[in-house]
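CORE FACILITY INTAKE
Project code: CF-77B
Contact: R.S. (postdoc)
Sample description: multi-component assembly, two entities in total
Requested service: structural model of the whole complex
Turnaround: standard
Below are the sequence entries exactly as provided by the requester. Do not edit them.
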Amino acid sequence: MAADTSAKIIDGKSVAKKIRDEITAEISRMKDAIGVVPGLVVILVGDRKDSATYVRNKKKACESVGINSYEVCLPEDSSEQEVLEYIASFNDDPAVHGILVQLPLPLYHMNEQTILNAVCIGKDVDGFHPLNIGRLAMRGRDPFFVPCTPKGCIELLHRYGVKIKGKRAVVIGRSNIVGMPATLLLQREDATISIVHSRTKNPEEITRQADIIISAVGQANMVRGSWIRPGAFVIDVGINPVEDAKCARGYRLVGDVCYEEACKIASAITPVPGEWVR
Amino acid sequence: MAADTSAKIIDGKSVAKKIRDEITAEISRMKDAIGVVPGLVVILVGDRKDSATYVRNKKKACESVGINSYEVCLPEDSSEQEVLEYIASFNDDPAVHGILVQLPLPLYHMNEQTILNAVCIGKDVDGFHPLNIGRLAMRGRDPFFVPCTPKGCIELLHRYGVKIKGKRAVVIGRSNIVGMPATLLLQREDATISIVHSRTKNPEEITRQADIIISAVGQANMVRGSWIRPGAFVIDVGINPVEDAKCARGYRLVGDVCYEEACKIASAITPVPGEWVR
């Protein structure tokens, strides 16, 4: 695919491998120096197949770098109180350094806010606690943890040597898990930010002013080539299924950004989800 | 002054009076209905004259609407522990509904973060606690309190019937107390926001795209007429002294926005600080 495009394809997989190697070395040093091995607990409630896959992948990722991982799988009909008791015990457990509650929870009988707020902020590795978000927003404060997807976006910018300070950045989407924290992170790096969302009247005009585009909106191919300033650095977080009879599954995955058009204009762009194999 | 300008002058004093009247009525109703009178504590450490003036004005404002106000004046050399003990006692006092710690604190021997974080968030009427800021940033969450200056800016937009949803808004400045929370508030109202700050390379170009401008940067007359889109609604939070031999004090106050130029282009603008007398 790369042959007929002008944009560099951002190779997230290779960056991820490099980061995992760095973490492996760091954990090994930490174990030698102070005898501590980081521990992550993942709490899964119910038996959603996609959630089980995510949890399995997290476990694998932990194993590959030397993090101890613990899994708590609770039945769908567990009470909110039971989940809260597990969280309280992990909050107090010195062998546990991070607690992830896999979302979505079975919401008809438990309150997501109540449960997420129960994780002590020093172990809130998801970074979704409002206290962590508040610290992320404030100058002179630092969050304990930063939500992983926007942190990954900024990491790609850093690893590709993109200067952020003073650059125009547009974040498309303002979700609590990607768009909003991505904005706060870019702000901390002194980008000049505009936020495009569903109520924005002229998203194309605003997006075209950006040196850096992060899209996390969940709309297949919404960002067309004409939205992109020549030479922009484009990170597409969207993973959207579109019908495609030619695919065995009956659908294929595309991003928020129309890749075929964008790759002729951007200086660098993340690949179509699942298509980039080294 | 209004005669030779095209912009409407935003009359914050009259809006403030109307709000005070509404609050007076609400407090009276509350007293009758549930027998509760709101109580505000202001904690002042040291003897800065400007701080004493601010505290006196808050006391007066409370009295004028029927809020019970309590003042704690501590000597400059009070320990951090003493201040924390006062805060703890007010956190537990059911007659106290709001706690304001007057800033700046004498910082050489106490930590501002430690002290502000000690105020329980349900009584953090300043809205500066990171948990309140986090809740302000997150969709689906609500802060207990919102910082007063940005809240006042949004209130002016509402009271002047300015539609915010879908409008382009530029916030100039990104301080924890005005710029950043103003951005989060405008975001909650579905404006499309750009944030201009000291590292922004083309502030004039970006500002000129805005239907709504909120400036809180502390730079005298920085925003020139050419920065303003014809018809924009301009709220200037800046209060900056500039030397002026013609004034008895040797200086006069100006905003961040060059009023003489802006008033010919904006549809509405806040007056030069201190100059607007009905």
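Facility notes:
- The first helix of chain B runs from residue 12 to 34.
- The domain at 146-269 of chain B is CATH 3.40.50.720 (Rossmann fold).
Invoice: internal transfer
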